[in-house]
Design goal:
single chain, four-stranded parallel beta sheet, alpha+beta, about 30% helix, Ribosomal_uL1/biogenesis, four-stranded antiparallel beta sheet, 9 helices, Ribosomal_uL1-like, flat, Ribosomal L1 domain-containing protein CG13096, Ribosomal_uL1_3-a/b-sand
Length: about 350
């Protein structure tokens, strides 16, 4: 009698795992070993050489000027969040020696008809007292309202200076006065404490910061990481610090970063880090960030005088109103809730 093979009687079924049903992995932590410093230096050197050759072909005068170098961040999953700016403190400043820096300051005397020249002289003397030489122009808030109120004048202001600083006391008011062009050109003013005891250190500290706008319009975000006048090793240090910051504060962390590239305004983007991970490996919950709520975003409770008897009303931030009525019964207070 011939014995049958048990493998033939019970066919084995292969489990098919589609990409859509893949389970999400735990967030991966940033590891410096994943970035090749040698490869990054090669990309930086290639970007510097490519930019120099392009400028020589167009105009020999521009070849001597420092050109900004950007780092392009591509995400695996598009972040689901409102527009937000990420500030990163770099070890080496991205401001070149020939860059123009303007400072927005608060007016000493309020009013559109007031002369702002005394305000300019006051802050010039303050900067000279602290030995600050990086600020090239002081622009009072009154001057912005009177001389740069039109769209074309604001565009001219953006093109006149490379970097902008702002007094922290008026930082919230300047964002809507300057308009959308400052956001599009990535020249949003950096806030400083003008009353600091060491104002020179405060300004140098602010000029070491770079910013990147995170949005849900696409999977690519851009930040300035250096300029062509810097040493290549200094640009490398800026890149490593920025990558460490992205691993903590970027939506989804390091696991949501698919590619990192270097580029200038007119050059191609050279990748120095790239991964082929599937988007299902990123947990969708980690890329969803709720908008920031103001400090007044809380429940408000008070007495209600329009109702007979003792009653209180609670108003929630979403608009819900809850009325609580109290009545005496057998020496005890009975509570009745009614929602409107």
């Amino acid at each position: 009698m011939k014995r049958s093979n048990p493998d033939q009687l019970i066919p084995r079924k292969r489990k098919r795992v589609s990409r859509e049903t893949e389970t999400t992995e735990s967030p991966k932590e940033f590891n410096l070993k994943e970035l090749s410093k040698k490869h990054i230096l090669q990309c930086i050197s290639a970007i510097f050489h490519l930019t120099l050759e392009q400028l020589k072909e167009k105009n020999s005068l521009l070849a001597e000027e420092a050109q900004p170098v950007f780092m392009q961040v591509t995400s695996v999953r598009i972040p689901q969040m409102p527009r937000r700016w990420m500030r990163i403190l770099l070890p080496h400043s991205i401001v070149a020696s020939d860059d123009e820096v303007a400072l927005f300051v608060c007016d000493l005397e309020k009013g559109r008809r007031k002369d702002y020249e005394p305000t300019v002289e006051h802050y010039k003397n303050l900067l000279q007292k602290h030995g600050c030489t990086r600020v090239n122009e002081i622009i009072p808030m009154n001057q912005v309202k009177t001389e740069f109120s039109q769209f074309e004048l604001k565009k001219k202001l953006i093109g006149s200076y490379d970097h902008f600083l702002v007094d922290g006391r008026i930082a919230g008011h300047m964002s809507h006065l300057l308009g959308k062009q400052f956001f599009k050109k990535r020249k949003l003013p950096i806030s400083i404490r003008i009353d600091s005891k060491d104002l020179k250190h405060e300004i140098d500290y602010a000029l070491r910061k770079t910013s990147m706008q995170i949005h849900s319009d696409g999977d690519t975000h851009l930040m300035q990481i250096g300029n062509t006048a810097m040493n290549e090793k200094d640009v490398l240090k800026n890149i490593l610090v920025a990558c460490k910051k992205l691993s903590k504060d970027y939506p989804g962390g390091w696991a949501n970063i698919q590619a990192l590239r270097l580029k200038t305004k007119s050059s191609l983007a050279l990748p120095f880090y790239m991964t082929l991970k599937n988007k299902n490996t990123v947990n969708p919950r980690t890329i969803m960030i709720q908008p920031k709520r103001p400090k007044a975003y809380r429940d408000v409770e008070g007495e209600l005088s329009t109702v007979t008897g003792a009653a209180t009303v609670i108003v929630k931030p979403e608009g819900d109103v809850i009325v609580k009525k109290f009545r005496k019964s057998k020496g005890k207070l009975m509570k009745k809730d009614a929602e409107n």
